[in-house]
C-alpha cells in the first residue's frame, strides 16, 4: 500500500519544482556554480526517491492518515 | 474594533517593512545619489530634430576633462548613431529623444535605462568605470520592426580612446566585465 | 453550451428537484443564466489568449516561429487584450453578479438592464476584437497592432478605440446595476451592515469608476477624434499618463474578485470560517483609496515628469502593500482555522488536514502562494531606483504572470470549479483532472516566470519578437541564456496544456448529465463578525470622497506640468501607422 496518494504525490512534486529551479541562483550567491540542468536532474532523482519511499515504507498503524 | 493580537503584530511588522522599503529608496536617492529621469531634458519638436542643437549631429561630444555628452535619436527601427564609443572612468550624460513613436533605451545588463518619448528629451547621467562592450536595445514596442532596433556601446581604455564619429570597427574583444553603469545625481546639464 | 441549464437532459431535470431550496440555481435561475453567459465569453477569450501566449513563448525563444515576426505583435496585442481585459473583466462581472445577488439575497432590479450591460460589454469586445484580428489580414485595411497599452502616436483603427470605449461604458452600467441592487436592498434593510460580499463589490466598483475616468478621457477626448482624422495627434506623454491613471488600478480590478473568492469562498472550502470580517472591510477600503494615486510608478523612467511626483507615487505604492500583507495574514489564518476544524494539529501538521484533493482549494492555495512571490518581485518594481535595472525587461512580464497570470487567473479557474456547478446544477466533470490542471499551471508558471525574471535581470527586453541581437550579448546570473529560453518555452507549453485541460473540464461540466450535490450557497459567518467593525467602514460616500481627493492630490500637478511642457497637441507628432489621412490636411 502506498504511503502517499497520487494527489499527495502531485502536490509534493509541485512544491519541489520551485525549490530546484531556484537552487542554482541561491548557490550562485555563495559562489557555487551549479548548472540548471544538474539542479533539475537532482530534483527528478529526489522525486523518484520520494516515490520509492512512498511505495516501500510501512503505513503506520495509527489513524493519522 | 476588535483586532486579534497576532493581527496587531503582523500589522506592525508590515508597516515596519513598508517604512524600511521607503527608507532604502530615500537612501538610494540621497546617499548613493541615484536620481530619476526627470523633466530637465526639456521638449523638442520631433520633426525639427535636424535643426535642434545636439540632435542635428547625434553622437559623442567632450564637454570636460572626463565628461562627455551623447546625443542619440531613436527612430523606427534604429538608434543614431549605431555605435557609441566612450573612454572608461568617464561621466557621461545621454540625451535621447525620438523622431516618431515611443521607444526605449537600455544599456543591457546595466541600470542605464529610460523611456524615449517623441517631443521629450530623456537625460540620464551615468559613469562607466571599466572597459567593455555593451548592447543598447529598444525595450518599448515601436512597430513591426521593433526587434531589429539595437545599437552598441564600446567603453575603451582611456589610453585607447580617440574621439571619432562612427568610423571605428568593433573589436572582437570578448573580455567579460562586471562593470555596471550607475546613474548618478547632482549633475546639471 | 451557452445555456446548458436550460437544455438539461432528464437526469439533470430530475436532479434539479433534488437541489436544496437554498441553492443559488433554484433561487436565482435568471441570474445564473447571466453568470453563465458572462463566463462563456470569459473562457472563449481565455482559450484564444492562451493560444496566442504559447505561440509567443515559442516564437521569442526561437524554438518555433510559426508566424512572421512582424505579426508577432498582432498576436501579442490579442494576448494582452483578451486575457487582461476580456477574460478577467467578464469573469469579474460573473463573480460580482453572483456575489452581489447571493449576499444581498435579492436579484438585480431589472432583467432588461442587466442584459443591456452584458450586450454592451460584448459589443465593445467584438469591435476591438475585429480591429485586432484584421491586422492579420493584409487585404483588409484595418489593424490595431498597438498592444495592451496603445501608446500614441502608434495608431489603431478607430473601431478599436470605439470598441474599448463601449466596453468601458458596459462595465459602468454593470456597476450601476449592482448599486441599484444594493440600494433596493438598503430600502428594505435600513439599519443592517452591508453584507461582506456586496461590500467588496461596491468598493471595487467605486474604485473602477474613478480609475476609468483616465482611460475614458484618453480614448474619447484624444484618441478617437485623432484616429478619425478630425483632431491632431495628442501629447504622447499626456496620453501615457492618462493610460496609467487607469492602468494601475485595473490590476486591482483583476485582483479584487480573486480576493473576494479568497476571503469568502476559500475559508468555506477549507472547512472553516473567515478570520476577521472587519479586517476584510479595511482591506477593500484601502484598495479603494490607494489603487489610483499610484499610476505614475509605471512612469518612473518617463522624461518630462519631475522626480517629486514619482516619489509621491512610490510612497503610495509602498503603502499599497499593506492591504495585501493583511490579506496574506487573514487568508492563512482562515485556512488554518479550517484545517484545525478538520482535525489538523501541530505547528505545521495542520497543513496535511487541508482538502488538497479539491482543485478549487488547491488552485486558490497555489495562486496565493504565487502571489507572495509576485508581491516580492513587485516590491522590486516599486522601488524606483532598483527599477532602473528591470524596467521594460522580461522581468516585468515575469512579475505580472505571477500576479494576474496566476494569483488572478488560477484563482478564477479554481473558483470556476466551485462556482460552475452552482450556476449549472451539473457535477464537475472530473476532480482529478481539475487537480492535475491547477498543479500543472503552478509548475508551468514556476518554469516560465523564473526564466523571465532571470532573463530580465540580464537585460533581455520584453515585448520583442526576436530578443536576439548581433550587437548584444546578455549575461545571466546563473545558467546560460539558451537554457533560460528552453525553460521559458517549456513553461509556456505546460501552461497552454493546463489551459486546454481547464477548458475541456469546464466544457464537459457544462454538458455533464450528472447532477451536482451539496450546493448549499450559504457562507459561514466570520470568526470576528461585522458587529465588531466600526460602522464608518460602511460609509461608502466618505471613502469615495477621500479617494477622489487623493487622486486629485496625486495627479493635478503632474498633469498640469505635462500640459504646460509640450501642450495638448504638440507640433511635429505624427501617427504611425497613419490609418486614416488626417481630415484636416485633406480639407486644407
TrEMBL record, chain A:
Q: Which UniProt keywords apply?
A: Membrane, Transmembrane, Transmembrane helix
Protein name according to UniProt: CbaC protein
Q: Which domain of life is it from?
A: Archaea
So where does this one cross the membrane?
7-32, 38-56
UniProtKB/TrEMBL annotation, chain B:
Q: Where is this region: Disordered?
A: 162-189
Domain of life, per the record? Archaea
Which SUPFAM superfamilies does the entry mention?
Cupredoxins (SSF49503)
One Pfam family hit = COX2
- The keyword Metal-binding appears for this protein: yes
Location in the cell reads:
Cell envelope
Q: Which UniProt keywords apply?
A: Copper, Metal-binding
Q: Name one GO cellular component term.
A: membrane
Cytochrome oxidase subunit II copper A binding domain mapped to chain residues = 65-167
Under the heading CDD domains, the entry gives: ba3_CcO_II_C
Q: Name one GO molecular function term.
A: cytochrome-c oxidase activity
UniProt-recorded name of the protein: Cytochrome C oxidase subunit II
The taxonomic lineage of its organism, from the top, reads: Archaea, Methanobacteriati, Methanobacteriota, Stenosarchaea group, Halobacteria
Amino acid at each position: 500500500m502506498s504511503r502517499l496518494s497520487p494527489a499527495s504525490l502531485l502536490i509534493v512534486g509541485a512544491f519541489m519544482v520551485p525549490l530546484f529551479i531556484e537552487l542554482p541562483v541561491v548557490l550562485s550567491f555563495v559562489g557555487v556554480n551549479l548548472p540548471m540542468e544538474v539542479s533539475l536532474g537532482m530534483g527528478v532523482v529526489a522525486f523518484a526517491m520520494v516515490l520509492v519511499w512512498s511505495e516501500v515504507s510501512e503505513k503506520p498503524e495509527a489513524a493519522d492518515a | 474594533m476588535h483586532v486579534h493580537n497576532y493581527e496587531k503584530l503582523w500589522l506592525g511588522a508590515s508597516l515596519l517593512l513598508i517604512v524600511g522599503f521607503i527608507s532604502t529608496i530615500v537612501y538610494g536617492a540621497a546617499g548613493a545619489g541615484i536620481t530619476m529621469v526627470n523633466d530637465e531634458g526639456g521638449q523638442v519638436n520631433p520633426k525639427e530634430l535636424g535643426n535642434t542643437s545636439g540632435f542635428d549631429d547625434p553622437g559623442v561630444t567632450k564637454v570636460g576633462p572626463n565628461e562627455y555628452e551623447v546625443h542619440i535619436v531613436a527612430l523606427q527601427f534604429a538608434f543614431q548613431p549605431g555605435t557609441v564609443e566612450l573612454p572608461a572612468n568617464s561621466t557621461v550624460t545621454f540625451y535621447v529623444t525620438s523622431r516618431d513613436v515611443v521607444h526605449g533605451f537600455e544599456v543591457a545588463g546595466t541600470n542605464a535605462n529610460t523611456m524615449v518619448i517623441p517631443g521629450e528629451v530623456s537625460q540620464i547621467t551615468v559613469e562607466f568605470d571599466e572597459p567593455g562592450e555593451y548592447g543598447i536595445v529598444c525595450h518599448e514596442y515601436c512597430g513591426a520592426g521593433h526587434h531589429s532596433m539595437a545599437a552598441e556601446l564600446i567603453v575603451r581604455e582611456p589610453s585607447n580612446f580617440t574621439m571619432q564619429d562612427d568610423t571605428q570597427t568593433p573589436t572582437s574583444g570578448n573580455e567579460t566585465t562586471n562593470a555596471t553603469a550607475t546613474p548618478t545625481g547632482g549633475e546639471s546639464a | 453550451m451557452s445555456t446548458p441549464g436550460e437544455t438539461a437532459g432528464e437526469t439533470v431535470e430530475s436532479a434539479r428537484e433534488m437541489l436544496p431550496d437554498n441553492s443559488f440555481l433554484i433561487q436565482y435561475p435568471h441570474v445564473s443564466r447571466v453568470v453563465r453567459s458572462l463566463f462563456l465569453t470569459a473562457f472563449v477569450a481565455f482559450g484564444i489568449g492562451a493560444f496566442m501566449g504559447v505561440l509567443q513563448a515559442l516564437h521569442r525563444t526561437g524554438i518555433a516561429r510559426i508566424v512572421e515576426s512582424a505579426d508577432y505583435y498582432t498576436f501579442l496585442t490579442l494576448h494582452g487584450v483578451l486575457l487582461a481585459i476580456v477574460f478577467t473583466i467578464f469573469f469579474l462581472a460573473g463573480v460580482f453578479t453572483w456575489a452581489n445577488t447571493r449576499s444581498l439575497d435579492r436579484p438585480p432590479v431589472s432583467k432588461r438592464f442587466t442584459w443591456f450591460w452584458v450586450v454592451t460589454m460584448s459589443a465593445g469586445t467584438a469591435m476591438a476584437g475585429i480591429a485586432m484580428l484584421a491586422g492579420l489580414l493584409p487585404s483588409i485595411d484595418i489593424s490595431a497592432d498597438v498592444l495592451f497599452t496603445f501608446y500614441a502616436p502608434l495608431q489603431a483603427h478607430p473601431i478599436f478605440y470605439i470598441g474599448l470605449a463601449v466596453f468601458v461604458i458596459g462595465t459602468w452600467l454593470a456597476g450601476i446595476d449592482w448599486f441599484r441592487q444594493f440600494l433596493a436592498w438598503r430600502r428594505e434593510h435600513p439599519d443592517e451592515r452591508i453584507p461582506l460580499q456586496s461590500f467588496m463589490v461596491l468598493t471595487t466598483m467605486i474604485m473602477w469608476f474613478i480609475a476609468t475616468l483616465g482611460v475614458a478621457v484618453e480614448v474619447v477626448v484624444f484618441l478617437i477624434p485623432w484616429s478619425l482624422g478630425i483632431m491632431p495627434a495628442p501629447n504622447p506623454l499626456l496620453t501615457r499618463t492618462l493610460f496609467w491613471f487607469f492602468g494601475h488600478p485595473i490590476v486591482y480590478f483583476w485582483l479584487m474578485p480573486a480576493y473576494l473568492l479568497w476571503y469568502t469562498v476559500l475559508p468555506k472550502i477549507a472547512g472553516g470560517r473567515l478570520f476577521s470580517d472587519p479586517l476584510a472591510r479595511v482591506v477593500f477600503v484601502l484598495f479603494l483609496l490607494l489603487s489610483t494615486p499610484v499610476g505614475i510608478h509605471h512612469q518612473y523612467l518617463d522624461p518630462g515628469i519631475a522626480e517629486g511626483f514619482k516619489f509621491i507615487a512610490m510612497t503610495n505604492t509602498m503603502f499599497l502593500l499593506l492591504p495585501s500583507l493583511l490579506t496574506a495574514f487573514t487568508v492563512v489564518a482562515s485556512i488554518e482555522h479550517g484545517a484545525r476544524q478538520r482535525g489538523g494539529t501541530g505547528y505545521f501538521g495542520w497543513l496535511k488536514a487541508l482538502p488538497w484533493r479539491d482543485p478549487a482549494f488547491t488552485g486558490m492555495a497555489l495562486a496565493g502562494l504565487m502571489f507572495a512571490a509576485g508581491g516580492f518581485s513587485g516590491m522590486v518594481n516599486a522601488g524606483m531606483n532598483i527599477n532602473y535595472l528591470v524596467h521594460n525587461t522580461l522581468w516585468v512580464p515575469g512579475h505580472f504572470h505571477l500576479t494576474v497570470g496566476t494569483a488572478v487567473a488560477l484563482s478564477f479557474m479554481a473558483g470556476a470549479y466551485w462556482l460552475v456547478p452552482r450556476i449549472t446544477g451539473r457535477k464537475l466533470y472530473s476532480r482529478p483532472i481539475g487537480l492535475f490542471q491547477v498543479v500543472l499551471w503552478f509548475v508551468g508558471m514556476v518554469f516560465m516566470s523564473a526564466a523571465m525574471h532571470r532573463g530580465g535581470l540580464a537585460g533581455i527586453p520584453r515585448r520583442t519578437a526576436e530578443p536576439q541581437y548581433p550587437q548584444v550579448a546578455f549575461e545571466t546570473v546563473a545558467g546560460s541564456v539558451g537554457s533560460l529560453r528552453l525553460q521559458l518555452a517549456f513553461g509556456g507549453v505546460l501552461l497552454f496544456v493546463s489551459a486546454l485541460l481547464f477548458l475541456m473540464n469546464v466544457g464537459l461540466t457544462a454538458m455533464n448529465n450528472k447532477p451536482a450535490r451539496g450546493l448549499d450557497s450559504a457562507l459561514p459567518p466570520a470568526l470576528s463578525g461585522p458587529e465588531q467593525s466600526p460602522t464608518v467602514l460602511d460609509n461608502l460616500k466618505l471613502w469615495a470622497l477621500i479617494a477622489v481627493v487623493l487622486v486629485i492630490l496625486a495627479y493635478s500637478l503632474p498633469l498640469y506640468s505635462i500640459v504646460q511642457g509640450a501642450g495638448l497637441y504638440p507640433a511635429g507628432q505624427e501617427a504611425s501607422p497613419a490609418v486614416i489621412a488626417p481630415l484636416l490636411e485633406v480639407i486644407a
